[in-house]
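Suppose you are handed a protein chain with no further information: no name, no annotation, nothing but its sequence. What can you learn? This example shows the usual starting point.
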Amino acid sequence: MPGPPACDVTELRDLFLFEGLTDAQLAALCGGGRIATFPAGELCREGEPAEYFYVLLDGEIALSKRSGARDIDIWRASAPGSYCGAWSAFLLDEETTYENTATLTRPSRLFELDATTLGTFLTSQFPMATHLLVGHSHGRFHQRRILGPHDRLVQLVQMTAGLTHELNNPAAAAVRAASGLRTQIAGMRHRRAQLPAATLPPEAMASLVELQDRVAEVAGKPNDLTSVQKADLEEALGDWLDRHKVADAWQHAATFAEAGLDVDWMERISAAPCCNTPASLTPVIRWLACTAETELLLTEITDATTRISTLVDQAKQFTQLDRAPSDVVDVHGLLEATLAMRAHRLGPHITVVRDYDAGLPPLPCYPAELNQVWTHLIDNALDAMGDTAAGTLTLRTTRDRDTLRVEVCDTGPGMTDDVLARIFDPFFTTKPFGEGTGLGLDVAVRIVDNHRGSLWAESTPGDTRFITSLPI
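A reasonable first move is to predict its three-dimensional structure. Written in structure tokens, the prediction is:
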């Protein structure tokens, strides 16, 4: 007895995908395909020749796309009529490959149609629509080829510009401090001969060594004096040194004030056995001022090089160059790394407010991709506030049941309803021609969607918020 038919037209007729087709058209499709039950597992692999077009009748299909060394889930469907496989069969190109990897999550019934049959059917039955699809496909490929590398280059240039700008200040400080330190050490070698060490008794010499150690200890520690307090202290020290007829009194006063040494310290120095004569006070003060200056320069070098190391660490955090593609991370660390990379755009007119929920759990995610999201959102906020008027950039994190919310808020003029409705559309931008591609927020939405989260905007004049919700 003959087996069941390879394809049943009546089963296809009820699917939304084939609405409006005639019996003859359905029969033509059935003639080039079959209905069959496929086991759970991979149906087709991205990059392989696109041989078949699949239409779901019963079961579930999951689509993923390759990104670097991993597959990212992008779509899952169980509705009859959902389709995958040879999306671009209308091109009738033998080199067309599968654009996604399709996996059946359970045994599923599918209509499997030969790609060449589908392509021939489309070009013969719907010639105008096929021409439009071919044009759109080639145009999309051309856009990706031109804009893809450009956008990546723009991001790299922005990150490099920010990093070099931030590294330049501490690097210049380290060079300046090292040069000053060399001068100080040379000066100390000459001033050592001016000390009355040769004529000092052992007790006085010991007191000088102890004073030098204590001055170095105080100067090497950070102090919390404000600029006004340092100015007042410098004036008091200058008056004291003047009264005691110390040469270069005001020069030494500035050094001691910067080191946090006050008038009580001057009294302690003058009362030490190494300063038992008026003539011995000036060389001792010079020696101790050099000691304090040397410690201050060493501290400046340490702070500058530490800042450079911190910036490099933040750059690694931002790019995730030394991390696995997926990780469980502190979202606040990602936000801070992104802020560090955009610090060159945070002028004195921008106030940054961090409203972080300290109780948030670590977030499972693709950190490098989320840093792209924060970069686009922060850049948009800064663009909205402009380069002149004072503005506030607020980063807020909260937990909402099983999701983590990140809000990037600005005090710019806001968006109208028609702009708000299109803000996530590809190639839509409110910037002048040539200043934006309109792809930043589209990329951000796609990344958040890949994390099974959501991204939306709320805006009123003076309060615009881009809100990201991610599953914990």
